Amino acid sequence: MLANAQGPALTEVKSLLDLYDAHNANSSGNTNNAELAGDLEASAMVGYPADARAFERDVQIDYGMCTDLPPEKRKNYEAILKELWTAFEAKPDEFRRGRFADEEQALHEKLAQELEDLKNDPKARLKAVFNLPFGDDLLDGVDKNQLAEVDENLQKLTNARAAFDKAKTPEERAQAVADASNAKQKLRGYIKDVASKSIEEQTRLWAEARADVLNALESASKLSGAGATAGGRLAYFGNRVFADARHARAFTDLCMQERHPFHQLVQWENELAEQNREAARTLPEVPLDKPRTFFDIPLRLPAPNNETQYETDLRALYVDALHSIVAADKRISIAAEPKSSPIRANYIKTHGSAN
């Protein structure tokens, strides 16, 4: 790139930039798509700790800033970002993750300076016009009827780079830059469409999951008969919502909202805890096991590891709490049995302190 014997003169380079990279459009285009990729990352991380969603959005923006750097610099920065990302995700609490978030912010400032230096280096800016746009990994998600157009523009970008290197006249170089700029603009459009559609789909799916959670809450509140105890309502709700990871994440997300809708749930949890304490006084042979609560879990979320691990760890916490609630509800039921009841005797035999 720009490796002809003499190479284009600086005045020619500046003229080409004025025509095809006005206002630093190439770098700005990468920044715009990186921000969109960050939004996509955040939309896919519903039910994650808030600091993790913010961190991973910021990392996407940093990757976008790396796109136009010289290859060796880009490789080094991306390696550092990967290390920070991996270390951040492994930490189980916001305090310990904060160190890596601070390091990411410091790296972001360095990248901003690198881009400022690039902006003031006309030849480096012109080289960057021939780089793949940020988010090219999303191009596999375009509509099938656009795949041929995507491949065509990817090839045009590659051909334009080669044509520029071989060009012997200003006209030939100008045509190569024009071809690259045109192909890259189209590729960015495809990337933007894929990211935007993915965000819309994620938004729709999470809205549906949240609605399912709220419907489960409403149904639990309408229970009647033997299952209408605080424990019975909580168990009904838990069996519906925590049957899969998506709804567990949707519940977590709702709990983290400033005005969460689960005051009724908290009331049931408080009622169950009080009934359980009373049952312990009535049934002293069985040690008191305070029931865990659903609503406490979003306050102490697991480490934001890869999606599969995080979902597994998160759902396990809710299922464990559900089992605890069911056990407490059982204890309350047994405590209401007459002392002469064989059901009570069998329960004490199975769960008593001697066992």
First-to-last CA distance: 77 Å
Proportion in β-strands: under 5%
The shape, in one word, is elongated
Query: What structural class should be given to the helix and strand makeup?
Result: mainly alpha
Number of DSSP strand runs = 0
Report the uncertain regions.
none
Helical fraction equals over 70%
Order of helices and strands: HHHHHHHHHHHHH
Describe the protein in words.
This protein is mainly alpha-helical. The chain has 2 domains: 10-200, no CATH class; 223-351. It has 13 helices and no strands. It has helices spanning 10-20, 25-44, 50-66, 71-90, 94-119, 122-128, 147-166, 170-221, 230-241, 245-256, 263-282, 307-335, 342-351. Helix 9 runs antiparallel to helix 12 (307-335). The chain starts with 9 loop residues before the first helix and ends with a helix. The mean pLDDT is 92.
